[in-house]
Structure formats: structure tokens, C-alpha cells
């Protein structure tokens, strides 16, 4: 199945972050069935959903966590939205 993505721009640093538009069953299972602390859960969400940060696919968790705190909150909200709503306006498909 072809994966859909959503690119968001962080409000403070204007960093572009590419997210998976939806989680597949495996990813959702990992996120929903893990009883970790809230911070660990947020880091796991970043790892499962963020594809790249400013075009770079390496160390995305660290790159997101290095952003301004308000931008990290923004990215977490966008990830949470991807789990609750599988359809975004302006989806980008990538093969």
C-alpha cells in the first residue's frame, strides 16, 4: 500500500517536519499497547510517525527534540491528530 504523508511547518523555527498521515496496524499497536511514561510515549510517537526533519531522515527523534519547546508541542499535536484522523487536506503520496 502506498504511504501518505503530511508536511507541517513548525510555528517558531519554521522547520519542516514530514509526518506519516496515518499509522498502519503495526505502528498503532506499538503506540497504543505500550504502557510507558508520558515522555517515553511521546518519544515513541515521534519515532513511529516522523519521517524527516528539514529533508533529513536521520536521527529524527533527536532533531525534533532539539527544536524550540513550542515546536515540539506542535509536532506532538500534529502526530496526535494523525492518530485520530486518517484524512488530511493536502496529503502527499510517496512511493
Describe this structure in a few short sentences.
The chain is α+β, with helices and mostly antiparallel strands and 95 residues long. It contains 4 helices and 4 strands. It has one domain (3-88).
Q: How would you describe this structure to a colleague?
A:
- The chain is an alpha+beta fold and 95 residues long.
- It has one domain.
- The protein has 4 helices and 4 strands, in the order ββααβααβ.
- The chain has helices at residues 25-32, 38-49, 60-65, 69-84, and strands at 3-9, 16-20, 50-53, 92-94.
- α2 (38-49) crosses α4 (69-84).
- The termini are close together.
- Mean pLDDT is 81; it is low at 87-93.
Please name the defining characteristics of this protein.
single chain; alpha+beta; 4-stranded antiparallel sheet; 44% helix; disordered C terminus
Rg, rounded, reads 13 Å
What would the average pLDDT be, to the nearest integer?
81
Order of helices and strands: EEHHEHHE
Largest sheet: 4 strands, antiparallel
* Poorly predicted residue ranges: 87-93
Helix percentage: 40-55%
- C-alpha termini separation: 9 Å
Report the total helices: 4
SSE diagram, text form:
Elements (H helix, E strand, L loop, with lengths): L2 E7 L6 E5 L4 H8 L5 H12 E4 L6 H6 L3 H16 L7 E3 L1
Amino acid at each position: 500500500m502506498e504511504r501518505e504523508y503530511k508536511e507541517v511547518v513548525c510555528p517558531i523555527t519554521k522547520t519542516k517536519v514530514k509526518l506519516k498521515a496515518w499509522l498502519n496496524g503495526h505502528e498503532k499497536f506499538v503506540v497504543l499497547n505500550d504502557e510507558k511514561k508520558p515522555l517515553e510515549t511521546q518519544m515513541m510517537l515521534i519515532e513511529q510517525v516522523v519521517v524527516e526533519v528539514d529533508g533529513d531522515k536521520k536521527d529524527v527523534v533527536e532533531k525534533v527534540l532539539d527544536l524550540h519547546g513550542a515546536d515540539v508541542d506542535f509536532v506532538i499535536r500534529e502526530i496526535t491528530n494523525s492518530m485520530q484522523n486518517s484524512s488530511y487536506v493536502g496529503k502527499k503520496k510517496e512511493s
